[in-house]
Write a structure and sequence with these properties.
Blueprint (H helix, E strand, L loop, with lengths): L2 H21 L2 H14 L6 H21 L3 H8 L4 H14 L2 H16 L5 E6 L6 H14 L7 E8 L2 H17 L3 E8 L18 E6 L9 H21 L22 H12 L4 E7 L8 H22 L5 H20 L12 H10 L3 E3 L3 H11 L6 E6 L2 E6 L2 E10 L1
Parallel strand pairs: 1-2, 1-4, 2-3, 4-5
Antiparallel strand pairs: 5-9, 6-9, 7-8, 8-9
Helix pairs in contact: 1-2, 1-3, 1-11, 2-3, 3-11, 3-12, 5-12, 6-7, 6-14, 7-8, 11-12
């Protein structure tokens, strides 16, 4: 069997296995998993490698459906330490250009929005809370305004782990001292779901920039619970409307809990409104340009296979198959994301990527307006890409930027203002 035939067989087996799993055909799913286990390999070609993690996720689905107590035990086995999390995220940064470009575009948008200011505030909502991004920002601010006397920069960073924030503060403090910046760091130990933007140590009216890299989609995990509540509310509203026909009490199509709303998660709507109330000069959002948030398991597998298959193709063209860092990143980062998309449901399914065309009306509804990515920022991004495989390129649409592999958009970067 040649490589092309094997690839087609693998893709078809994954799709069949997803369909069998979703329909409850245990025997069909089991047979497909058996064949997949013989063809997939974490050390093979890109499709074999990505199929390994889809196979694990689909097998996990079978366990989760039939043995309620086991999934939690399996999940505990997969838990990795903070150091390991930071290591694999660093490998993602090193092996792909996506985060480098996101940071570069974000920093340039901040510099342009803060022109003429001597005191600026930055709110970092990113899961990695990467000190490298803000070191580069401080350097860029210094280069842009070399004669500005003792500029003040305040960074408020969000992370679940206190030790990550402490390390970040040390690195940024050292760089600020070197550049003669007055520096203040506000660590906030929290995840995004628990965060109330209005309670952050940020004063309204101060020059503020917000950065959110590959994190905002996690707030959509509350949408499943919201839909359950919505059904109850609709039933209750229908009962009230029958009692009082003079008052129309049915939920409005503009309601955050309406299936017609561009913002189906009440948490998402409240969070975006909270960011809007902070009155940022610029809000820069980086998200996966993928659509894996559908309710159907089969559809999620189809869409996720397209997205992650392309990410594995990128590595194949630029990185050795035997590189240990590549294998670890594939397994501990991309593989875990695949498992979350395929095997988890409800609030546990955090990886709910949606395309920019879906994010635009949500942000506009919250009161934000799009800021075009500047030509200089795009030039910088294009220059950075010259050091990578030529198949990477930048594409502009909707005043936003897309980082593509061949003709496939993989990540979007969009800028917004209050």
């Amino acid at each position: 069997m040649n490589l092309e035939s094997k690839g087609i067989l693998l893709a078809n087996l994954l799709k069949d296995c997803a369909a069998y799993t979703e329909s409850g055909n245990i025997n069909g799913a089991d047979i497909a998993l058996y064949h997949l286990s013989r063809l997939a390999s974490p050390n093979g070609d890109p499709l074999q490698r990505v199929a390994t993690y889809f196979t694990e996720a689909l097998a996990y689905c079978q366990v989760a459906k039939n043995l309620r107590g086991v999934p939690k035990v399996l999940r505990l086995v997969k838990t990795i330490s903070t150091l390991e999390q930071e290591f694999v995220r660093q490998q993602f940064f090193n092996l792909y250009p996506f985060l480098k470009i996101a940071y570069l575009i974000t920093n340039q948008a901040i510099i342009e929005a803060m022109q003429g200011e001597i005191a600026i505030n930055v709110l970092d909502l990113s899961p990695s809370s990467d000190a490298f991004q803000w070191i580069r920002l401080m350097q860029g601010l210094k280069e842009h305004s070399p004669n500005t006397p003792c500029m003040k920069i305040t960074i408020t960073a969000i992370h679940e782990k206190k030790e990550v924030l402490e390390q970040m503060e040390l690195l940024l403090g050292a760089e600020a001292k070197r550049l003669d910046f007055y520096f203040q760091f506000n660590p906030v130990v929290s995840n995004l779901e628990s965060l109330d933007p209005e309670k952050l140590p940020i004063k309204r009216g101060e020059p503020l920039a917000i950065s959110c890299v590959l994190q905002l989609h996690s707030l959509l995990a509350t949408a499943d619970d919201d839909m359950v509540k919505m059904r109850g509310q609709m039933i209750f509203a229908e009962m009230l409307s029958k009692q009082n026909k003079k008052k129309k009490m049915n939920p409005s199509p503009n309601s955050a809990l309406s299936p017609f709303s561009p913002c189906p998660s009440h948490k998402m709507e409240c969070f975006l409104n909270g960011l809007w109330k902070l009155q940022p000069r610029v809000l820069v959002i980086t998200e996966q340009e993928s659509n894996v948030n559908g309710p159907s398991l089969t559809e999620r597998v189809y869409k996720a296979l397209d997205f992650y298959g392309t990410l594995f193709d990128c590595l194949e063209a630029s990185t050795s198959r035997t590189l240990v860092e590549r294998s670890l990143m594939e397994k501990m980062l991309l593989g875990e994301e695949i498992k979350n998309i395929v095997a988890c449901e409800g609030v546990e399914r955090k990886e709910r990527h949606e395309k920019l065309v879906t994010w635009i009306p949500r942000l506009e509804l919250a009161g934000f307006g799009r800021v075009p990515i500047s030509p200089y920022g795009i030039w910088l991004a294009s220059k950075l890409l010259q050091s990578y495989v030529p198949r990477y390129h930048i594409h502009q649409k909707h005043k936003c930027l897309f980082i593509c592999w061949d003709k496939i958009p993989l990540f979007s970067v969009s800028a917004w203002k209050f």
